[in-house]
Amino acid sequence: MKLLGVIRDNNFLEYLDNGLDGIILPLENFSVDYFKYYSISDIREYKNNTDKLCFVVINKMIFNRELDNLLKVLKELECIKVDGVFFYDLAVFNLVKENKININLIYNGTHMVTNSDTINLYYDLGVKGSYLSNEITKDEVLNIRGNTKSDLFILLLGNPVVAMSRRSLLTSYFTNKNKSKSDLITIKEPKSGQEFLVKEDKNGTTFFYNRRLNLSNVYKELEDVGINYGVIEQGDYSSYEYKELINAFVNFNKQKIDELAGHNRGFLYRETIYKVK
Amino acid sequence: MKRIELLAPAGDLERLKVVLLYGADAVYVGGERLGLRANATNFSLDELKEGCTFAHNLGKKVYLTANIVFHDKDRIGMEGYIKKVVEAGIDAFIVSDLYLAKYISDNFKTVEVHISTQDSITNRDAAIFYREIGASRVVLARELSREEIKEISSIPNLETEVFIHGAMCTCFSGRCALSNYVTNRDANRGGCAQVCRFAFDYDSNDKFTLATKDLNMAIFIKDLIDIGVSSLKVEGRMRSLYYLATVIGSYRFLIDSIYDGTLTDDKLLEYQKRLDSVANRDTTSQYFNHLADVNDQYYTGRQEVSNQEYLGLIIGYDEQMKSIVLKERNYFKVGDEVELFTPTGEIYPYKIETIYNEDNEKIEVARHPEEILKLPFDKKLSGYSMIRLIKKS
């Protein structure tokens, strides 16, 4: 399994010597659900400085007025020769196909990448990979792996994205309360005790689960069955801690990973229900 | 030019009949599988057949929601189920999963494929993509402005469907798993627990809420007709008969009056008030004229108010007593001023002077929901007529 980082520090190049196979760069103005975004020139700089893998995220909902710029950006990414583009909105797919842009696409449907058939259909349409949803079980992950030729990406460690709104929910909230605004707050659902980070930027508001997902306990199994890429997010780890974490995956040390990241296994063993008696 | 479609929700066969009788051109329903309202009273195959026959006899259509984001195990028996519901007579599937959309489009030429709002289509290229895989219609994201809707609606050979009334998701449809994380109920497989309507702890003095007000587009129906939208959709498969009858009847009146050129400002105001009277939350036009903002949200806990103006469903006529027979829904008493209204739009102001119970005994107060009562009235009214409170005595 190749390991990809999502880095919040400005000095993102320095992590490549620690064993990461590449990094994921959310593109500014065209991606959401991240804490740091990168410009086209950042991406170009990265490609000029390393042969490591470079994936770019374009996962916001696209509006009509953005389509022309999106096409320009996709052509630039083709020139830069990035290794792949994670997309949510099918406008990305349509523009790439219509304009015959030579870019590997990875379907990044957040909560929607949950079954083999749909992944296979995307693959047949020319989408090289799919980033699995965080809300499926381990058995479902294994089943999908067994049923598709698509490259599969999985979040090994990080704060799962829970929801995304076009609304400026924090601006509205603080305006209503006549309080000074914060762009990042933590909220807690009182009955379940579940906490969420709520982050607002110009594209809307994202909810992250405030417990890191840590798949260290199945990392080796996922690697053995052929999950192609594992994503390790920096989150709010310091530079030192994040490097330790990367090392712990590279030289697999489950105890160290768990010590740094806790034991939240997400939905690996917890199937969601949808019919309530 | 094809007239715009009024599309209504129906959680069961009775609601299907009510919304079609009150003026919907088409109805969307959930089946026993693949829908996003797993806890609604969904339609069995026999009910689907009966509903389709009822609709088709009126020259109207039935769409089946199959907009689940399915997991591998949900796939078992899927093809067989789809074949059976096609045979039951449905006119279109509303789907969100790309595989399912293409499978239906490739294999069942007698039904249309409509792409669900679950896919949050916000631009013309995404819409064109779905047209190319066989969809005849896209249900647009609720986050779009007038201009954005207009531009997508200009795409040839693709219909657009727009929500005009009802509850709103706070987040992009399909991009929310709050329910999964808080309640373990799968939002994208029909188990949404509406966690966006919960109040969250933020600091010791206050709660953080993200609930939105509801959508009401009554004053913009003419604009939506003018910009080329094909279908106007009302949300609420689990809403009451009374709510559905009032909302669908009101929009039927507005649409017809716009086409006839007879809609006056006074009438628009009257129907706007009628729609407000059955709403259990405040309403706005959300994103239509500007990005949703501070005025489109709630900042305290749950805001629903129960509506008690629905007094009863008229279920028959007692020829001997020259009285309408009704099933009570909410408290009323002698002296109350009410309106009797019918599916075809007639409204009869009425002051309650006498109430009879099922044994033909006079009573002063109706206080037992579901009780059968009679009110003297010299005219028989059509099935599914209803009574609403105008003024208490």
Percent of sequence in beta strands of chain B: 15-25%
CATH superfamily of the largest domain in chain A: Aldolase class I
Strand segment tally of chain A: 13
- The CATH architecture of the largest domain in chain B can be named as Alpha-Beta Barrel
User: For the record, what CATH class of the largest domain in chain B applies?
Assistant: Alpha Beta
Domain tally of chain B: 2
- Overall pLDDT of chain B: 93
Which fold name corresponds to the CATH topology of the largest domain in chain A?
TIM Barrel
Cα-atom radius of gyration of chain B: 22 Å
| Percentage of residues assigned to helices of chain A | 25-40%
Q: The CATH topology of the largest domain in chain B is what? A: TIM Barrel
For the CA atoms, what is the radius of gyration of chain A?
A: 19 Å
Shape of chain B: globular
Structural class of chain B: alpha/beta
Largest sheet of chain B: 8 strands, parallel, barrel
* CATH homology superfamily name of the largest domain in chain B: Ribulose bisphosphate carboxylase, large subunit, C-terminal domain
The total count of helices of chain A amounts to: 9
The helix fraction of chain B, in percent, is 25-40%
Strand percentage of chain A lies at 15-25%
- Largest interface by Cβ-Cβ < 8 Å: A-B, 65 and 71 residues
Mean pLDDT of chain A: 95
Label this structure with key terms:
heterodimer; A: 277 residues; alpha/beta; 2 domains; eight-stranded parallel barrel; four-stranded antiparallel beta sheet; 13 strands; 32% helix; B: 393 residues; TIM Barrel; Elongation Factor Tu (Ef-tu), domain 3; eight-stranded parallel β-barrel; eight-stranded antiparallel beta sheet; 10 helices
Structure description:
The complex is a heterodimer of chains A (277) and B (393). Chain A is an alpha/beta fold and 277 residues long. Chain A is 32% helix and 23% strand. Chain A is built from 9 helices and 13 strands. Chain A has an 8-stranded parallel β-barrel with strand order 1-2-3-4-5-6-7-13, surrounded by 4 helices. In chain A, strands 8-11-10-9 form a 4-stranded antiparallel sheet, covered by helices on one side. The model of chain A has no long low-confidence stretch (mean pLDDT 95). Chain B is of the alpha/beta class and 393 residues long. Chain B folds into 2 domains: 292 residues, Alpha-Beta Barrel (TIM Barrel); 82 residues, Elongation Factor Tu (Ef-tu), domain 3, CATH 2.40.30. Chain B has an 8-stranded parallel β-barrel, surrounded by 6 helices. In chain B, strands 17-16-22-13-14-21-18-19 form an 8-stranded antiparallel sheet, with no helix packed on it. Chain B has a two-stranded antiparallel sheet with strand order 8-9. In chain B, helix 1 links the parallel strand 1 and strand 2. In chain B, helix 1 runs parallel beside helix 2 and helix 1 runs parallel beside helix 9. Chain B starts with a strand and ends with a strand. The interface between A and B is large, with 65 and 71 residues.
